[in-house]
Amino acid sequence: MPQITVIEHLLYHQKESPMATGRFTRLLSEMILSGKIINQEVNKAGLVEILGLTGETNIQGEKVRKLDEFANQVLVHRLQQAGVLCALASEENADLILVPEDCPRGDYIIIFDPLDGSSNIDANVSIGTIFSIFRRISTGEEPVTLNDVLQKGARQVAAGYIIYGSSTMLVYTTGNGVHGFTLDPSVGEFLLSHPDIKIPERGKIYSVNEGYWHYWDQATRNAVDYFKNPDNDSKRVYRSRYIGSLVADFHRNLLYGGIFLYPADTKDPACSHGKLRLMCEANPLAMIVEQAGGMATDGINRILDLQPKELHERVPLVIGSKLDVLQVEKFMRAGAASGA
Ligand code: FDP
Question: Where does Mg(2+) 1 bind (predicted)?
C-alpha cells in the first residue's frame, strides 16, 4: 500500500469532501500534532512523574489524573492557536472555552475528551482522545454562545479519535466513510492503514460492565441476556469483551463487529441517564459508527438526533453492529411499552 498521510488523504479526496478546505486541514493538523505530543507522554508515563492523581476533582466528579490534565492542556493550548476555532469544550472543563479576542478565530467549534478511559492509565490499558467538530450557528459578528455548541450530533462536520494502544491510531470521518491511520514512529506520521472501515452487520462480541447487572432495569437485563443465550434467534455464540476504556472497546468492535452498551443504572444518581457524555463521547463515536454502516442509540432513539440540553449531559449508549443494536432496541421498546 502506498504510504499516505492523513493530510494527503484529505487533499486527495478534496472533491468528495467539502471539509478539505485549508481551514479544516489546519484544524486537523493541530489535532494530529496534539495527538503525537500526548502519545509521547503516554508512552513514557511509567518513567516520568506523570502517573497518578493530581488531587483535583473534575466537573464530572471524577478524580483528575496527571495525564488527563496534561492532555487537556496540550489540546486547549494548541487548538486555541489554530486560528480556525471560535470555541472549544473539554470534558475536563465546566464551561465553554472561548478563543480569546486577540487570537485569530474561525467558525469551527471542537468538543473533546482529552484522555478517555483514564482510570486505566496507571495499568497500561489502551486509552484515547475523542473529538467532535461543528460549525457555529450564529454569524461571525455575533458573540459565540452555548447555543452554538448545543447542536444535535447529526450536524457534526467531522469526528474522530486517537487510540494510544499497542500502536497509536487516528480514526476519523468527515462524512465520507471512516478511515484509520497508524502512527509510524520512525517517520512520526500517521499513515493510512485502514481505508474505508466497515463494521460487520452483526458481530460476535458484546461489551458491557456486567458488574452492574443488579442496578439495571429488566429490559436491559433481557437485552444483555440475549447475547449470553445460545438459543437466541440469531443462534450465535457471542463472546464477552469489556476493557472498560470506551475508545478501546469501541475500536475493537468497529474492526471485528460487536456491540458496546453503557445503559442507565441505579448504582449512583449520576448514572441514572447513563455515564457517558453525549457531546464528547456518544456523538463522535455515533457519527463514526454510522459512517461505517453501524448504529448508535440510547436504547431506543438515534444518538445523532438527540438535542443536547447542557454541555456535560450524559446518555445511555448502545453502539456497534446494526443488527445487534436493533436487537437491543426491541427489548428496550418492549420494556418501555410494559413500563418495566
Ligand atoms: P473512565 O471512567 O476510565 O474515564 O468515559 C468514561 C469511561 O472510562 C469510559 O472510557 C469507559 O467505557 C467507562 O467509563 C467505564 O466505566 P465503568 O468503570 O463504570 O465500567
Answer: 91, 113, 115
